[in-house]
Design goal:
The protein is an alpha+beta fold and 320 residues long. It is built from nine helices and five strands; from the N terminus they run αααβββαβαβαααα. Helix 4 packs antiparallel against helix 7. It starts with a helix and ends with a helix.
């Protein structure tokens, strides 16, 4: 029996107890954390303390994922400190990290690309930042720069905005989610990500997405909405009206599909898909999918854990 189930069975009869009251710094359910932020305040739900120690103390993350998230949290906290006395873009120029690896509701993330990563909220919980941290363990094909990262980041921003719209449907409605990503070789957030809160239309990498309550793509599935409703009932929150449910309801067809095949074909034939080095000669392709190239066997082996799913799918579909 897990902790939440035990607590519910042990204390569920007490009138003042509710599972939502148990704030867990390592909680992965975004719905629960958003409810807690409104109920207890954002500072009670912040997760920066998890990254104050060593990776060994965060057993639910690999060392690489730990440092990728710590890097993002440190950058945002430095911005907060540097801008404490400047003109406020948000309330007190404060961003609080509340999630570092999340699914919309428990067990809703079936695949690696269904997980969201680092989320910050302002003190009013109406403006949120989302930073996806892509590395060797989350890459689709072993190439640190391909179009999947932008697609996945926008998808997660739409899902987060859909969730916010549904959960915060009464007072203090959400305004926007601002999203971008980092990679193993591009770890620094663009200054525009924090220094302005307006849409940015440029071709720089990584892109910055600005998703508002008016233009998000509905991305929640019916099964997820049922679980969200259950959590709202548990926390004694009113359920959203039916028309709002229809506004946030998406379908499986809206989920992104990997674009790594075309990205592999568009790459420089003299550039390694793993280490990004450019050689003097055309590099050999992967013998399975024939879509990505590696400079040597060592890079191919290192890329295989993340490249394997795409490689098998490409081979099965007969990609050329």
């Amino acid at each position: 029996m897990d902790t939440a189930a035990f607590a519910h069975s042990a204390f569920g009869r007490l009138p003042y107890f509710n599972p939502i009251m148990m704030i867990n710094r390592s909680g992965l359910c975004a719905t629960t954390k958003l409810i807690q932020c409104r109920h207890f305040g954002t500072y009670q739900c912040e997760v920066s303390g998890k990254f104050a120690g060593s990776p060994e103390q965060a057993s639910d993350l690999s060392e690489e994922d730990f440092y990728a998230r710590k890097n993002v949290i440190d950058q945002v906290q430095k911005w907060v400190e540097d801008n404490e006395k400047t003109e406020h873009l948000i309330h007190q120029n404060e961003w609080v990290p509340i999630l570092y690896n999340f699914e919309v509701v428990r067990s809703s993330a079936k695949r690696q690309r269904d997980w969201g990563h680092v989320v910050f909220t302002d003190l009013t919980t109406t403006r949120l930042l989302l930073v996806m941290c892509f590395g060797a363990s989350t890459c689709m094909c072993g190439n640190p720069y391909h179009d999947d990262y932008g697609v996945l980041t926008k998808y997660q921003a739409d899902r987060l905005m859909s969730l916010l719209t549904y959960v915060y449907h009464k007072d203090n409605k959400p305004l926007w989610v601002r999203a971008t990503y980092t990679t193993m070789t591009s770890k620094k957030l663009r200054p525009e990500f924090l220094n302005t809160h307006e849409p940015i239309n440029d071709t720089k990498k990584p892109p910055i997405f600005h998703v508002t309550a008016e233009d998000f793509v509905p991305s929640l599935l019916s099964g997820e909405l049922e679980q969200i409703d259950n959590l709202l009932v548990q926390s004694k929150k009113s359920l959203p009206p039916a028309e709002l449910r229809n506004k946030v309801l998406g379908s499986k067809e809206t989920r992104p599909t990997p674009q790594a095949w075309s990205a592999g074909m568009e790459k420089n034939p003299r550039q390694c898909a793993f280490c990004e080095k450019v050689g003097a000669q055309t590099m050999p392709t992967c013998s399975g999918c024939k879509l990505v190239r590696y400079c040597d066997r060592q890079c191919q082996i290192a890329a295989w854990p993340s490249h394997k799913p795409v490689c098998k799918k490409a081979k099965a579909s007969g990609a050329k």
